[in-house]
Every structure is written in structure tokens, then in C-alpha cells.
Write a structure and sequence with these properties.
globular, mainly alpha, 2 strands, two-stranded antiparallel sheet
Amino acid sequence: GVLLFAAVVLVQLVAWRGLFQGGVLHGGALLPVPTGASDLWQAYTAAWHPVQLGSDTMAHPSTAVLALLATLLLGHGTWVVPTLLVVGPALAGVLAYQVTRSFGLSQRLRLWIGAAYALNPVLLAATAQGRWTTVLVAVLLPLLAVAGARALGVAAAEPSGRAAAVAVLLTAVVVALSPALLVPLAALLVLAAARARSRRA
């Protein structure tokens, strides 16, 4: 897991280098990020946004996720996106490696699965283009899979209410970052629930 993390970070630094020039991240899908977590929370809760001629449209939910991450990083909003772009894919690969342990797969196969997940073209393109929301979704999906399995009793003898709460929270964050995943996640949830119910029957 440690070697996988280090190798993927090295690859991500190469893919990320084009966005970092003169000490500032720019290009791709990146937009200027406020310096503090409080600025991000204010941008999310504000009733009026000074965009072009101004807009009263509600801020995108990803702004709240960005503000939460900035709060966890001691209020440094400018640290969030660079940290996600470099560490996110490696962390996603390690999580995929750990999650597949419960499937009874060999360590070598799990290592290949983790590397393939971390270095898939979609994730590499997201890093090169500065799409931090895609990177964060890739990190959260393995955690959501584990929480969902435990909530339905697939990975344990009995369903877990705590795991269900975690799964709901992670689903809300993932859908906030990528609304297009709402339908696939709902379909997977229905299929997993039906399978868990048939097993218990």
C-alpha cells in the first residue's frame, strides 16, 4: 500500500505539473479559490454573488464541500485543490486496494486493481485538467462501497445503522460533487438491497 501510494503520487506530480506555473495553480477547470475557509462558507451562504452582472442563484454544493475541506486544513482554502490533485488519486488507489481485501483476492491482484483504479484515464485527465471534484469522487467511492455493504449486511452478519448513516452522508457528498451519479448509485443501492434481502431469506 505504501509503495502504491508513493508511485501514484509520483505519476500525479508529472500529470499535475502543467497547472503549476509561477507558484500558482491555474488552467483547466481551475478557478480562483478564496484564501480562507470563512470566505468559502460566506460564498456558499451568500444570497447575492458578484458574477458578471450579479446573480441570486444558489451556490453550487461543491462550494460547501470545498469549504469543509478548507476548514479541516486549518482554514487554508488555497491548500485544498493542490492537495487533492496530488494526493487524491494515490489515496483512491490505496482505498481500492484495502476495500478489495474482503473479496478474498490475492495481494498481487488487489495491488493491480488499486493501481488501475488510481491510474485510470479519467482520473489522470481530471488531474491534468484541474477537475478536483472528479478526483474527490474517486476517493469517496471506495469508502461509499464499504459503508453501503456494511449498512446492508453484505460485509457483516447484521446491517449496521452507523454504516447506513455514513453511507447516506457519503452519497450526499458524491451527488453534490457529481449529480450525474445519482441514478447509477440509486440503481446499485436497489440491487444490493435486493441481494442482501434474498441472502437473509
